[in-house]
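@channel sequence for tomorrow's demo:
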Amino acid sequence: MPSDEELLDRTLAFSGTYVSDDGNVAIRRAAGAAEYSGDRFVGHCAVCDQALLVPYPGEPLADLAAAIRFLSTHDHGDVD
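structure tokens (generated this afternoon):
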């Protein structure tokens, strides 16, 4: 059985976007991002966006490890 990291990587490779079960947190592949340079992903949270706690259009994430950290540690700015 693949690990959560492998599943996230496969989902992003296939569709370019991952959305949490509650629909509030999303990771998407950054437009024009190359695997070897720049921020590869963007993390977005609908709750934090409404509270103006994240930059528009989301938090730049350098790699898959940063995307996993964003998903696992995201707390909606302690407002949910």
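heads up for whoever presents: The chain has a mean pLDDT of 79.
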